Amino acid sequence: MGEMIQKPDANPILLGALNFLIAGCVGYFMIGQKKKAIMSLVGWLVSYVLLSWCGIGILTGFAIQCITGYDVYLLGQKLQAGESIGENENALDFLNSIFKD
Description:
This protein is mainly alpha-helical and 101 residues long. The protein has one domain (16-95). It is built from four helices and two strands. It has helices at residues 12-21, 26-31, 34-49, 57-80; strands spanning 4-5, 85-86. Strands 1-2 form a two-stranded antiparallel ribbon. The radius of gyration is 13 Å and the shape is elongated.
């Protein structure tokens, strides 16, 4: 199991907004989930660059931004409440199949 992250000064709204607005990864970097941030960025880039030729790239990229934005918002709430989270912890259960410990 990885290192536990504690950031009681986390702002869930800011984290969620940053992930939503900037490639689905900045909020993860800010809370210390670097592996998730890199995987989200790669997924976002792949969806925009490789899938845009068939018209679904923008939709999948937007979906990544929405999902990661909500995930980091929920994780930010846990941090703000004084709880610890794991390096690869997910607030949304279905992300466990993508981001594993």
